[in-house]
Design brief:
Helix content is 51%, strand content 14%. With 587 residues, the protein is of the alpha+beta class. Among the domains are: 140 residues, no CATH class; 161 residues, B-lactam Antibiotic, Isopenicillin N Synthase, Chain (Jelly Rolls, Sandwich), CATH 2.60.120.330; 40 residues.
Length: 587
């Protein structure tokens, strides 16, 4: 067994390196890159304990293009090279998956009589009918199910109807002799289009309501599909049970959801990653190991989160993670059903983070200057809990001294805000960190402020600012948007009269002296000071918390390079313009 695992890992590494060499990580596919889709499909097949050749075929299943994915990563003329990397059997299966029309495959497999040995199908590459052994057709159907499981999602990344299709494909594959993994056997026996639709409606209803809606909870209990087919509804029911102090029920849902997640090795509700859902499931499953004090703490945190963050799985996860309630998940600790390599580990094994590769691929867009402002797959919410950011806590602790520093400053250090944002009244700023530039003289005037900023994870590249903002009495700043979703904006209240405020995405908040607010300024926002006193806040830009350290490093390097190119280009043009003017003077 160990030799088989080692062989599969070695083949995976060779094929993945070849995919990256051919820039699969830069080819768009759905909401991610082709590399992400291929590696995650491999991870699903590997978790299903499929044989090595079929797993590697999953890693290649779209490289020649398919009937639904027109882009070709590898030309058919390179099939011999792919055979060398992947093995002849894996390449042959991958070719068949690319060449055949999946609807005709499904139809032929469904209509085939029991015991059928061969299916006649159309090869779109060779423009002819070919005879496909039933064993190959059953493999392709299993691969088709893994392909569905990996990518099916609604526009908001929530779940959509596909399980009943997987059930039909599974029944056809089993009829042709396939050995289905247990999760697909359950699917074929329990899932219909009608009960899947009921599950989606009940799941959406529970996520859209508050903790106290017992009817919605009972509705989801009644709509769950058979024995632990999908995990996320069970996790949500477990969280509700935990909030209600029903710890045994919560743990039972947790254990069932761990098994379902490990069986699929992908998420049904893709608003969280598989490992994030697994962390929540493990939190529930391990409740019996906790003492009464810990259980009470978790119940309180979950109760508060369910009331505050209904309908948003990522905010539930973030709220629990911020207080340290979500356990860190490793394969050895949690994947007891099958010690499969975690999906995220496959995805992050590339030299470039897949999400950054998708971001760079936006340079192909017709208007890259616009599309490159927005980074893919970051949580999108207007207001954030300031207590989850260490810099916000540091600013609040230092707020009295920061206020004293600002009070000692003369007005001459402020100038009018130059951004082209409509306003009435006077809006002045004192810039400290200005998109990669440090204003040394001004920073020296506020040493405590700079000490906090220097020791915190604020943006110091061309993406961010740190400055004092002063709004005169009677000032209103019109609704506007910030340029990118890669940053969040933190405000520390310094001088805050009563009649002033800020509205982001239609939600109004008030500053408080010595307190922080954090929001995403890529949402439409506006601010006003209708009082007879000045309003002053310290504004600091933070990297979006979903960005990894590697992504931040890459983004900072990219921004620095493009800025340097712009400066050098301006200097080059200026020198040539000067030379042209001198030439004209000599005429």
């Amino acid at each position: 067994m160990m030799e088989t695992v080692a062989s599969l890992a070695a083949k995976y590494a060779i094929v993945a390196d070849e995919l990256r060499r051919r820039d699969a990580h830069l080819m768009p596919h759905g909401m991610a890159s082709l590399f992400v889709h291929l590696t995650q499909t491999f991870g699903i097949l590997e978790a299903w304990d499929c044989r090595d050749d079929l797993c590697i075929a999953g890693l290649l299943h779209s490289v020649y293009s398919t009937d639904t994915f027109a882009s070709s990563l590898i030309p058919l003329s390179d099939r011999d090279l792919v055979r060398l990397c992947a093995g002849e059997e894996a390449e042959r299966l991958a070719y068949l998956f690319c060449a055949l029309d999946r609807r005709s495959l499904t139809t032929a497999a469904t209509r085939a009589p029991d015991g059928e040995d061969v299916l006649t199908l159309y090869d779109r590459f060779e423009n002819r009918l070919i005879r496909v052994p039933a064993s190959d057709a059953s493999d392709l159907l299993v691969l088709h199910i893994a392909n569905l499981a990996e990518q099916q999602q609604a526009k908001n990344k929530g779940p959509t109807a596909w399980l009943h299709r997987a059930a039909a494909l599974g029944r056809a594959a089993r009829k042709l002799g396939a050995r289905l993994p247990p999760i697909l056997v359950s699917c074929t026996e329990h899932v219909t289009a009608e009960n899947e639709e009921s599950l989606l409606e009940a799941y959406s209803a529970l996520l859209s309501t508050t903790f106290h809606d017992e009817a919605a909870r009972q509705g989801l209990i009644g709509a769950t599909l058979g024995p632990s087919i999908v995990a996320e509804p069970l996790i949500w029911l477990g969280l509700h049970a935990l909030a209600a102090n029903s710890f045994d029920e919560a743990a039972r849902h947790g254990r069932a959801s761990v098994e379902a997640l490990c069986s699929w090795n992908t998420a049904w509700d893709k608003r969280l990653s598989p490992t994030q859902w697994l962390a929540l499931a493990n939190l529930l499953a391990t409740l019996p190991q906790l003492d009464d004090k810990a259980l009470s703490f978790l119940a309180t945190q979950v109760h508060r989160s369910l009331n505050e963050h209904a309908a948003q799985p990522f905010t539930i996860f973030a709220a629990l993670d911020r207080v340290g309630a979500v356990p860190k998940v490793t394969a050895a600790e949690v994947l007891a059903v099958k010690p499969s390599k975690p999906l995220d580990e496959f995805v992050e094994s590339g030299s470039i983070p897949p999400r950054f590769a998708t971001y760079i691929a936006q340079l192909r867009d017709a208007d890259p200057a616009r599309s490159m402002r927005f980074y893919p797959d970051l949580r999108s919410q207007a207001w954030w809990d300031a207590s989850g950011f260490s810099v916000a806590k540091d600013l609040e602790r230092a707020a009295p001294e920061i206020c004293r520093e600002l009070t000692a400053l003369a007005s001459e250090h402020f100038h009018s805000e130059t951004e082209r944002i409509s306003r009435t009244g006077a809006w002045n700023v004192m810039l400290l960190l200005e998109r990669g530039r440090i204003h040394e003289e001004r920073c020296a005037l506020v040493p405590t402020t700079m000490e906090v900023l220097s020791s915190s994870a604020v943006i110091r590249t061309h993406a961010g600012l740190a400055y004092f903002s002063r709004m005169a009495p009677g000032t209103a700043i019109a609704p506007h948007r910030g340029p990118t979703n890669m940053r969040l904006r933190c405000h520390l209240g310094i001088s805050v009269p009563l009649d002033c405020g800020i509205r982001v995405d239609g939600i109004t908040r008030r500053w408080e002296r010595g307190k922080t607010l954090v929001f995403d300024d890529s949402f439409v926002h506006e601010a006003w000071n209708s009082s007879h006193e000045e309003r002053i806040v310290l504004i600091v830009d933070l990297w979006h918390p979903d960005l990894s350290k590697d992504e931040i490093t890459l983004l900072g390097g990219l921004q620095g390079y493009t800025a340097e190119v712009g400066v050098n280009l301006s200097r080059y043009w200026a020198n040539n313009d000067r030379a042209e003017r001198m030439r004209q003077l000599d005429l």
